[in-house]
Amino acid sequence: MLTGQMVAKLFLRGLGELLVLHNVGGQALLGQIAVEKNRTVFKDRGFLRGVTPAQVATAVEFGNLGAVADIGGKDWQTLTFLGITRCRIPSDLSATRTGLLRETRSVQGDSLASFEGSWYRGFHLMLEHHFLPVLSMIPLPTAYPGATGLAVCDLKLSTLPLATMQRVHDSIRMAVDQYLTVEVEDLAVDSEDFSTLFGTFLKSDAS
Predict the structure, then answer these.
(1) Any idea what DSSP says for residue 185?
(2) Adjacency order of strands within the sheet including 133-141
(3) Cα-atom radius of gyration of the chain, to the nearest Å?
(4) Which residues are CB-neighbours of 155 under 8 A, at least 6 positions away?
(5) In this predicted structure, which of 19-23, 57-61, 97-101, 115-119 has the lowest mean pLDDT?
(6) pTM of the model
(7) Rounded Cα distance, 140 and 135, in Å
(8) Which of 20, 24, 29 has its CA nearest to residue 151?
């Protein structure tokens, strides 16, 4: 059962950066968790205007990709994405889809099915392999005792217009890129090292 305490705990670790799928009054909504007046609230982003829960049901029921959870003691400071083999998935995935998730790998060799890392690395891997990861308001137990996360599903399995999916994709990509893009001023490089690394490039650029 999803509790307000669980949502609040995840929010403190960055849940508000991720898109969450939520059904309210016969309407499918896609938005973000926020805190207003000491309450956690859901704020719709307007991606799914006029979309019914039935149109996204396939994504939620059969598009399990894993879970986002708060796992302490890791090298990264954000929420953790865990692949399906590190979660207790309630529904059976087809052999074909399970095989697809196992074969989906990062350039470092990480399999999506057994992935364990920062949420943005996990989401980057999924985007690169044409999945469209969003959270659902479904609690999903993980392989870590006492750690329950929110299920991540593939919105590509829904019956949404391509233009809507592209808008959602762009929004997720922007959130991921904020973590993956490293500015020059973020690098601890002294002037001599900078000249060695970038000198040739700067000379050719000036010519």
Answers:
(1) G
(2) 39-44, 27-36, 20-24, 133-141, 148-154, 64-69, 80-83, 116-118
(3) 19
(4) 21, 56, 59, 63, 132, 133, 134, 165, 168
(5) 97-101
(6) 0.82
(7) 11
(8) 20
Q: List the beta strands (DSSP E) in the chain.
A: 20-24, 27-36, 39-44, 64-69, 80-83, 116-118, 133-141, 148-154
Alpha carbons within 13 A on the beta-carbon side of 2: 13
Instruction: Please state, in angstroms and rounded to a whole number, the distance separating the CA atoms of residues 19 and 17.
Output: 7
Residues whose CB falls within 8 Å of the CB of residue 106, separated by 6 or more in sequence, listed in order? 121, 125, 128
- Check residue 124 and give its pLDDT: 95
Q: Which tokens sit at 73?
A: 């003691």
In order, the DSSP letters of 44-81 are E-STTTT--HHHHHHHHHH-EEEEEE---S-SSSSPEE
- How is the chain split into domains, by residue range? 4-206
**pLDDT tens column, 56-85:** 999 998 889 999 999 988 888 899 999 998
Residue with tokens 């973020």: 186
User: Tell me, what amino acid is at 176?
Assistant: V
Mean pLDDT score of the chain, rounded to an integer? 85
Q: List own/partner pairs for 61-64 with CB under 8 A and 24 or more apart.
A: 61/91, 62/91, 62/93, 62/94, 62/97, 62/157, 63/153, 63/154, 63/155, 63/156, 63/157, 64/89, 64/91, 64/93, 64/151, 64/152, 64/153, 64/154
